[in-house]
Specification:
Layout lengths: L9 H6 L1 H4 L5 E7 L6 E7 L4 E3 L2 E3 L4 E3 L24 H7 L2 E3 L6 H7 L16 E3 L7 H6 L5 H11 L36 H10 L2 E2 L14 E2 L5 E6 L8 H14 L3 E4 L6 H10 L5 E3 L1 H8 L9 H14 L3 E4 L21 H13 L4 H4 L1 H11 L2 E4 L14 H19 L4 E5 L8 H11 L5 E4 L11 H15 L3 E3 L12 H22 L6 H11 L3 H7 L3 H11 L20 H14 L2 H16 L7
Length: 626
């Protein structure tokens, strides 16, 4: 498939949005909540009718979870320079526990805002940021623990259920809603769609088993949940580097990622104009945005890890929190005593953030300042409702290093920090590996559940083998499906370019689709209510040779259609009862249909005679030759 060129500018990206989000045979629909401004989006895939001798039999539309935000709504005009609608602004204002600041609190943020050299790069339509009033805590966990159901929690409940309970009484969905029993491996999944209530969401947030990453300054956000007892989510990474990629290209990658199904995005920029790039992404993102603040703090030192200070890092946290970043990766578990444990590893410390903090600890022979200042970090987090993504800075970089003392020592420290964050009512998820062979994955999940008190686990893969450069989206997708079933709440995607270079748009697409497959496979295995609906609909379409429905119900209709048409390009092939794999004479599904038709056409006497012969055969011992 031809690789597409990145957008040269925001104008060219805007002009192409309608084409990018033209999902085939789909409509944007909304579930209405308890108030007019709670309208939860989903995508509905329309199906064609089944042709029978008695006439066409209609097939019902299939609802699917949607991450594309307003971009796929034909009634919404997208203006990237103005940003998306401020969906949550009224909810936040109504709570009365925040205040609009007179200006930016971060020294660096003020410097960037006043620097004429970056004026042409800045997002123009900025408003002053919000912060919690003195003594207030504005985290979703804080509200949940006080018995308050926020609009964000109601939004999540409707989004997770897709209102599937309304379909169970409709005869056209009866067969499609059949589902194999799942094995949730100890998780407390809701049994039916109607069990996914706002109160259920509140309880999960209050317990720490789930988070709703939703900074009060990211009002464009469509709330979502990350937790073991919800749908498995996926994260897509983007970010500029000192070597390649432009500001417009990074915004395009965000838009491209949510088009294919990314639930959150991490901006891992390390090159020029990190601040401005992040602002453009946030103002145009309907999904949570995460960052690794230590990257930008390091950039402020000119790349010298030893020159990092707590004051510099603190300013970076405030700068990003006031822009609206929803979760921070904080490598506070890389302790001085763990660094020597990596000396005998094959690949040492492979996390950028982990290596930065390890170098700082060794240079100063002091404990990690992220660890020693953790309570102060919590104070910042709860003032803006930024969630922790506690970083696995000592994750294994190859399967030979998996599950070693450094990795699991850090994990136990992350559990200690989780308990400390929860005392502040700050939301937490835990990052995990990495490179782990299949037989060692379960131990990672068990250790996380035990030592981190069921806080959501967020893993990079894991990659289950190291022999496939260029195919690590597959090696990691295998591990992701497994650990997702075992209880991981969010899977960080890996692209084919992993270990090789910065991914482009098509690499992002490949990684997202691979991880959508892994997450969906995990949902099926766990028994998420209604997870099998789309599978059943596609299987029925396949058996009935409804080719267009097969394409449209898939995760990547464009690719499915192109593969089919590569060998059977004629329009008539879209209604043919075979594909190029078996041809018209050897198609098993066509033969099965013929057998069914033949059996149905037999006279009752003939059927009875066959049944009698069957009984006679069984009575004689089922021997072919007597």
């Amino acid at each position: 498939m031809a690789r597409t060129a990145p957008a040269a500018s925001f104008e060219s990206l805007e002009s192409d949005l309608d084409q990018k989000f033209a999902y085939p045979a789909s409509s944007k629909t909304y579930i209405n909540g308890s108030r007019p401004d709670i309208r939860v989006p989903m995508r509905t895939i329309l199906q064609t009718s089944t042709r029978t001798e008695k006439g066409d039999m209609p097939n019902p539309p299939i609802p699917v979870y949607d991450t594309s935000g307003p971009y796929s709504d034909p009634d919404v005009h997208i203006d990237l320079k103005a940003g998306l609608p401020a969906l949550r602004a009224k909810w936040i204002d109504e709570r009365g526990d925040t205040e609009v600041l007179p200006g930016l609190s971060s020294e660096y943020g003020r410097d960037r805002a006043n620097d004429p050299a970056t004026a042409h790069l800045r997002f123009a339509q900025l408003t002053n940021p919000r912060r919690a009033k003195a003594g207030a805590n504005v985290s979703q966990m804080h509200y949940a623990r006080r018995g308050i159901i926020t609009p964000e929690m109601e939004y999540v409940a409707l989004r997770e259920s897709l209102n599937l309970q309304a379909l169970y009484d409709k005869p056209e969905y009866k067969a499609l809603l059949r589902q194999h029993p799942g094995n949730a491996l100890g998780a407390g999944l809701p049994l039916r769609p109607e069990d996914i209530t706002p109160e259920f969401v509140r309880q999960e947030i209050a317990s720490g088993r789930a988070i709703i990453p939703a900074n009060i300054n990211h009002t464009e956000l469509e709330p979502m949940a990350i937790g073991r007892n919800f749908r498995v989510k996926i994260n897509g990474n983007l970010g500029n580097s000192a070597v390649t990629s432009s500001l417009a290209e990074e915004v395009e990658k965000m838009v491209w990622s949510i088009r294919w199904g990314a639930d959150t995005i991490m901006d891992l920029s390390t090159g020029k104009h990190i601040h401005e790039t992040r602002e453009w992404i946030l103002r145009n993102s309907p999904v949570p945005i995460g960052t690794v603040p230590i990257y930008q703090a390091l950039d402020k030192t000119g790349g010298i890890a030893e020159d990092l200070t707590w004051e510099m890092f603190r300013d970076t946290l405030i700068e990003q929190a006031e822009q609206g970043v929803d979760y921070f990766t904080i490598h506070a578990g890389v302790l001085l005593r763990y660094v020597p444990l990596t000396a005998d590893r094959v690949t040492g410390i492979v996390s950028r953030g982990g290596s930065i903090m390890a170098k700082w600890c060794l240079a100063h022979h002091k404990e990690n300042f992220l660890y020693t200042h953790f309570d102060e970090i919590c104070e910042i987090m709860k003032a803006y409702d930024v969630s922790f993504s506690l970083g696995d800075g000592l994750r294994p970089g190859c399967i030979a290093d998996s599950n070693d003392d450094a990795q699991f020592g850090e994990l136990r420290t992350l559990g200690e920090l989780t308990a400390k964050a929860w005392k502040h009512d700050v939301q937490v998820m835990i990052e995990g590996p990495g490179h782990v062979p299949l037989q060692r994955i379960q131990a990672n999940m068990d250790e996380e559940l035990k030592h981190c008190y069921e806080a959501p686990f967020y893993t990079l893969g894991p990659l289950v083998t190291d022999i496939a450069p260029g195919y690590d989206h597959i090696t990691s997708g295998i591990g992701a499906a497994n650990i997702g079933w075992m209880g991981t709440a969010m899977l960080c995607y890996v692209t084919p370019k992993e270990h090789l270079g910065l991914p482009d748009k098509e690499d992002v697409r490949e990684g997202i689709i691979t991880y959508k497959i892994a997450a969906h496979a995990a949902d099926l295995a766990k028994g998420w209510p209604g997870a099998q609906l789309r599978d059943n609909a596609l299987s029925k379409a396949r058996f009935e040779f409804r080719w267009e429905d097969q394409f449209n119900l898939g995760l990547d209709p464009e690719r499915a259609r192109s593969y089919h048409d590569a060998t059977l390009p004629a329009e008539g092939a879209k209604i043919a009862h075979f594909c190029s794999m078996c041809g018209p004479k050897f198609c098993s599904m066509k033969i099965t249909q013929e057998v069914r038709d033949y059996a149905a056409s037999l006279p009752k006497e003939a059927q009875q005679g066959m049944e009698e012969k069957s009984i006679e055969f069984l009575k004689k011992g089922s021997k072919i030759y007597s």
